Amino acid sequence: MKKGILILLIIFVGCSQNGKNSKNMSAQISKKWIEYKTKDSIPELLNLTLSKLNNGEFKIANPNERFNSTDVIVNDSLPSRQLILIAERGIDWRIIYTQGGIGMHYVISQCKIRSDSIFDLKIAHTLVKYENNDTIDKLLCEQKIKWKDIKILYE
After folding, report:
1. Most exposed residue of 23, 80, 123, 150, measured as fewest CB within 10 angstroms of its CB?
2. For residue range 26-67, what is the model confidence (pLDDT) as tens digits?
3. Which of 136, 130, 36, 10 is nearest to 88 (CA)?
4. Phi, psi of 64 (to 5 degrees)
5. CA angle at residue 144 from 35 to 42, to 5 degrees?
6. What burial class does residue 100 get, using C-beta atoms within 10 Å of its C-beta: 0-12 exposed, 13-18 middle, 19+ buried?
7. C-beta of residue 112 within 8 angstroms of C-beta of residue 102
8. Centroid of chain to Cα 37
9. What CA–CA distances, in Å, run from 109 to 36, 88, 125?
């Protein structure tokens, strides 16, 4: 009799813990990414940080605007990057863009921004063009995107 009660108690505790985990998981899933398609939507703090990481220069074209996609500089006034998407989910921000030049590739960057602070900055470089957050989230869950953590030093 005591063993039966103990088994029921263990099952009850295990099920209640699973319920909590599924609630947290569903709350996280219900938070959707809000996607933007213009460079004006990039938060100033993220723009400044990316500029600092790129030797003080982070010019970027909107998705359908011209940019220098190869190492042949056609027009010096054109940026060497083209925005694919900027997205936010609460304090989480993600930017995806094409990096032109020798070995054109795509850059995915993600960070957290709260008030006037940016933290947990990560960057990944890929040859595959990802255009939506669902695909990126799936690949992150499958650990197919390898982040490089970036340390942010304040002056």
Report:
1. 23
2. 444 558 999 999 999 999 999 999 999 998 889 999 999 999
3. 36
4. -105, 15
5. 25
6. buried
7. no
8. 15
9. 15, 12, 9
